[in-house]
Amino acid sequence: MDKIEPKIEQSWKEIMKAEFNKPYFHELKAFLVKEKQNHCIFPPGNEIFNAFNSTTFQDIKVVIIGQDPYHGQGQAHGLCFSVTDGTPHPPSLKNIFKELVNDIPGFEIPESGSLQKWANQGVLLINAVLTVRAHQTESHRKKGWETFTDKVIEELAKQREQVVFMLWGNYARAKSKYIDPQKHLILEAAHPSPLSASRGFFGCKHFSKANEYLSNQGKTPINWIL
User: Fold this and answer.
1) Does the global pTM surpass 0.85?
2) In this predicted model, what pLDDT tens digit does every residue of 96-154 receive, in sequence order?
């Protein structure tokens, strides 16, 4: 088999290089090549690994886990819950901003829905599935991405210490099995979607709790204000 070397930041490439040459990843790549021949895929190819290219493995302070990318034109750019500049805020992102208004003093809902500023500070905004077919939610589930992103969480939890994991909804909460709560802070809540936000996401205060934890560990807290 030919070696696969995705364009991914060097520290992540070193951590994940064994995955790129496993059979499941070859099958995933073959699936994506075929998909691109017949369908529009989001996010664009050069942004699939944006979450990893925005910060090094060693600089990760907070992990937020989404499900799969937005499937509308011009929305997804490789960061979970985030959309490109000029794109209307999707419902889950609106609810994240509502919680921030109530949790972080001085936070005002920004015009842009891009969370790139968080990613640049060491917030890994990772979807469990990194690609999607246009206008077909969950169309790339169970093709191999989950195996890859499970390994990302597992390696972070194993090799790093004092990372905050925000697990919103059952899909993300399932990742807790890879995380030692003695080494890291696990924050769990309902998903911020309109269907579930009122059942435990609103009022969770995850953003201030994360910063309190980071400060107590002698780390610079995240500036959540966008």
Assistant:
1) yes
2) 999 999 999 999 999 999 999 999 999 999 999 999 999 999 999 999 999 999 999 99
Q: What is the rounded distance in angstroms from the CA atom of residue 90 to the CA atom of residue 105? A: 23
Q: Tell me the sheet residues that pair with 124.
A: 63
* C-alpha–C-alpha distance, residues 47 and 79, integer Å: 9
The C-alpha atoms of residue 217 and residue 65 are separated, in whole angstroms, by 22
Tokens representing residue 189 in the block: 């809540």
Looking at the annotation, which residues are catalytic? 68
First to last CA, the chain: 44
Chain position carrying tokens 């040459």: 21
The CA-atom distances, in angstroms, between 111 and each of 47, 85, 94, 192 are 22, 8, 11, 19
Summarised one tens digit per residue, pLDDT across range 162-189 is 999 999 998 899 999 999 999 999 999 9
Give the number of residues written for the chain: 226
